[in-house]
Design brief:
The protein is α+β, with helices and mostly antiparallel strands. It has three domains: 149 residues, no CATH class; 220 residues, no CATH class; 254 residues, no CATH class. The protein has 23 helices and 15 strands. It has a four-stranded mixed beta sheet.
Length: 709
């Protein structure tokens, strides 16, 4: 990751982009939502708590807190004061919060029984009020500016709380809460501080809840700005950075230059970390707790020395690339613990959406046509090809970071490709996904590379439902979809993906084929919506199968003549003919499983025996069709010309198949993919491989002279 980000820092420097630098231990606050507010605690000059209020998400985003996992200041986390678990109390509490019933203060006080501040919470709050502020004061020293006097006053007031009755931070907080409740002020915020809605099935120590709070001085006006302001936050950051530069370590005796060639001064501190969307990542650390890391006789940051100047540049580069404003341009969240980054070696005034070509975000998935791969790739390619030679980047850096556990994260995928290579990859991707014939599954939509893993990993039951177990199937990782886009693939790797996909999706293909070929109508809007979703899933699945065949060099113009594809078509023809028979003869009573669909799974394993069995099953329907085709019926969905059409298609496919098949014929995974595609593909147009006979032909030998039965 260091090498990748160093190139970005070079590009930013050449473009004159200066990213904001933050002190390594001055970190942003947790994201504020309706369920996880950030509460400002006002401290009065006498050391009491005189006010509580929720701050906006926008303000919280501009604030920071100094410290570490042991404590922070002026913002830190506390637990609600009391825990309630009784259902009656929980229900009544929610009604009070919604304002449907009035607040009964005496009843509220009677609920304050189970103290929620356990020993660990008390110790952490104590460190946040005493140890951390003193460390902070020591770093910034005595400052004469108003901001310096403001933070000194706040530290002085915070240090006044003691772990004694009536002098503790908790008792001051509780006193303020009840005083405000007495006045019926901001009841929702106060009850959030007072009660944790516990789960009775959990142990109390494991179920205390957490609230983000930030201290501020109520009489801040004399200092110009409050502590909870962007101005003060940036001032304190400047003081911390100055402190860091003053405390630089002595030059290393062993290493004179760092990994990038500049003089190395050992900072004697771990590599910095950066908070990304959802998790925090340390830039690099060969953790000394793992003995295998000692094999290179270096450990921690000593294994790859980076000077302070470069540490700062790399940290700022990652923070710049991961900024919320550049989501969809330089980064994209893949799931809750994985993020992909992509940026050019030469930054542009208007940068293309580099990561959007790998997958669209949730906001872009809201049925917007612009979010389709075809449109994004088109815009991306047009922008890159429209650049002047001096503006064209030499390469585009791509990598993904995955959070492995609570403390570790890792770069699991990295590529460096030229713009031409990425353009060619995008064009090949579209051609590969289009490597299937027309279907009746609706409008075709090319999947994004980051979608492929979900399509491959989905396991479908025979009834068209997903088999959702407790542990998600991950036979293919998200980044491997990007590999599929960018890398030439070996046949064994393609075969592996194909085998997994076919195994998982057989139920979906059989179910959706039976439904579509049977002409089933939905009984409700819900059922109709569910069917459309399944058809979309099946269409994406066929795109992936077409892509994998394309990667192997098999084009649809050729494989549509292959035996496996024709077997799929024969099953589809059987379904359609069976359906027509049921509509005409049985008054529309179509059985839940059609003749071809019932043999779909068997056809992939023993095609010769399956075709023989199919011929027997289709015998009565073919005999009926030979007579029905001359009836000249034009009733919708019961047209007699359909019988002639199906007979001709059936005969043409059977005539090609049976001479070429033997008892020992078996399909490999590539052929099974063709079978899947053939079963869901539309019938060929006139003049294609399966010829449609002239509808005026009244020869009764058509559809009955050769191998169709």
């Amino acid at each position: 990751m260091l090498n990748e980000l160093y190139s970005l820092s070079t590009a930013m420097k050449s473009k004159g982009i200066s990213a904001k630098e933050w002190h390594r231990e001055y970190k942003s606050l947790p994201k504020v939502t309706a369920k996880s507010p950030c509460i400002r605690i006002w401290l009065a000059q006498d050391g009491s708590i005189c006010g509580l209020e929720s701050i906006s998400a926008e303000l919280a985003q501009s604030l920071r807190k100094y410290g570490n996992n042991q404590g922070t200041f002026p913002a830190f986390n506390i637990a609600p004061l009391y825990r309630i678990t009784e259902e009656e109390q929980l229900t009544e509490l929610e009604q009070i919060e919604k304002g449907t019933i009035p607040l009964d203060l005496d009843k509220i006080k009677s609920w304050c029984v189970h103290d929620n501040w356990k020993g660990s919470i008390v110790k952490k709050v104590d460190r946040s009020l005493h140890t951390i502020p003193q460390t902070l004061s020591g770093l910034i020293g005595n400052q004469e500016q108003p901001e310096g006097r403001l933070i000194s006053k706040l530290i002085q007031l915070a240090s006044g709380f003691r772990n004694e009755p009536d002098k503790s931070f908790k008792s001051a907080l509780e006193k303020c809460v009840f005083a405000k409740l007495q006045k019926q002020e901001d009841i929702g915020t106060l009850l959030t501080v007072l009660f944790h809605k516990g789960n009775p099935k959990k142990e109390h120590n494991d179920d205390t809840g957490s609230i983000s709070v930030v201290l501020d001085l109520f009489d801040w006006q004399q200092y110009g700005y409050p502590v909870t302001s962007q101005h003060f936050t940036e001032w304190l950051n400047d003081m911390l950075l100055k402190s860091s530069s003053r405390s630089a370590s002595q030059p290393s005796k062993d290493v004179e230059r760092d990994a990038f060639g500049i003089p190395f001064i050992n900072p004697d501190e771990p590599m910095p970390s950066v908070k990304l969307s959802g998790f925090e990542v340390t830039l690099r650390s060969m953790f000394n707790g793992q003995p295998c890391q000692y094999r290179y006789e270096q450990i921690d940051d000593g294994s790859y020395p980076i000077a302070m100047e470069n540490r700062s540049l790399i940290k700022k580069s990652l923070e710049w690339a991961a900024d919320l404003e550049r989501e969809g341009i330089t980064w994209r969240k893949i799931d809750k613990s994985e993020i992909v980054f992509a940026y050019p070696s030469k930054l542009l005034e208007i940068s293309p959406k580099f990561v959007s070509i790998f997958g669209s975000g949730q906001a872009e998935n809201s049925a917007r046509a612009e979010a389709r791969f075809e449109n994004i790739a088109k815009d991306f390619i047009r922008t890159l090809r429209g650049l002047l030679p001096e503006e064209t980047p030499k390469f585009i850096q791509i990598f993904t970071i995955r959070k492995l556990d609570k403390a570790r994260s890792k770069v699991i995928f990295t590529r460096n490709c030229s713009p031409d290579q990425l353009i060619q990859a995008a064009e090949d991707w579209q051609a590969g996904c289009g490597n299937i014939p027309e279907t009746e599954l609706g409008k075709r939509e090319t999947p994004f590379p980051l979608q492929v893993a979900r399509i491959v990993n989905n396991v479908w039951k025979q009834n068209g439902e997903l088999a959702q177990g407790q542990t998600a199937v991950e036979r293919m990782k998200y980044y491997q979809g990007m590999e599929l886009l960018l890398d030439p693939m070996q046949e064994n790797m393609i075969g592996n993906y194909l085998h997994v996909t076919l195994t998982h999706s057989s139920g979906l293909v059989s179910y959706i084929g039976n439904w579509v070929h049977g002409g089933s109508s939905c009984k409700s809007k819900t059922e109709e919506k569910a069917l459309e979703k399944l058809k979309n899933e099946a269409a994406l699945l066929l795109d992936v199968l077409g892509l994998l065949l394309y990667k192997r060099g098999e084009r649809k113009e050729k494989y549509m003549e292959n035996m496996a594809y024709l077997v799929g078509q024969l099953l589809k023809i059987s379904d359609e003919l069976h359906t027509l028979y049921c509509k005409v003869v049985r008054g529309g009573d179509v059985p839940p499983q059609l003749a071809g669909s019932a043999l779909f799974a068997a056809a992939g394993e023993r095609p010769y025996q399956t075709i023989a069995q199919l011929s027997l099953r289709m015998n009565p329907y073919i005999t009926w069709a030979k007579h029905y085709r001359f009836k000249n019926i034009s009733t919708k969905d019961e047209e007699s010309w359909r019988a002639r059409w199906y007979l001709n298609l059936y005969e043409d496919a059977a005539n090609k198949l049976l001479p070429a098949m033997t008892d020992s014929t078996r399909f490999n995974d590539f052929e099974k993919a063709q079978l899947f595609i053939g079963y869901l593909a539309s019938f060929p147009r006139r003049g294609s491989s399966v010829t449609v006979a002239d509808e005026s032909d009244n020869d009764n030998n058509v559809g009955g002279a050769n191998y169709e039965q």
